[in-house]
């Protein structure tokens, strides 16, 4: 019986193109979420969420910069 850890599973290997596409999609979604919060008139009540979204968007941008190198 073969050792499962020695088997190669191509679908479990990271796909840089797919990861970059996913990061771009996430960045776009975060941008739109922040705009919706701002435009919804709930900016004061949603300040903490907006701050977290901004941090997430910044991290995605950094990851994209590294992926583009």
Q: Would you kindly provide a written description of the structure presented here, covering whatever features stand out?
A:
- With 69 residues, this protein is an all-alpha fold.
- It has one domain.
- Helices cover 67% and strands 0% of the residues.
- The chain has helices at 16-39, 47-68.
- It is elongated.
- Residues 1-10 have low confidence and may be disordered.
SSE topology sketch:
Layout (H helix, E strand, L loop, with lengths): L15 H24 L7 H22 L1
Helix pairs in contact: 1-2
Uncertain residue ranges: 1-10
- Shape summary: elongated
Mean pLDDT value? 75
Distance between the termini: 42 Å
Q: Share of helix among residues?
A: 55-70%
Beta-strand portion reads under 5%
Q: Can you summarize the main beta sheet?
A: none
Number of helical stretches of at least 4 residues: 2
Q: Order of SSEs, N→C?
A: HH
Number of strands: 0
Radius of gyration: 18 Å
Please state the structural category.
mainly alpha
As an assembly, this protein is single chain
How many structural units, i.e. domains?
Answer: 1
């Amino acid at each position: 019986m073969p050792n499962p850890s020695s088997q190669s599973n191509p679908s479990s290997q990271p796909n840089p193109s797919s990861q970059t596409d996913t990061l771009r999609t996430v960045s776009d979604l975060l941008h739109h979420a922040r705009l919706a919060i701002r435009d919804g008139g709930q900016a004061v009540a949603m300040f903490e969420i907006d701050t977290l979204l901004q941090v997430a968007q910044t991290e995605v941008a950094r990851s994209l910069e590294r992926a583009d190198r």
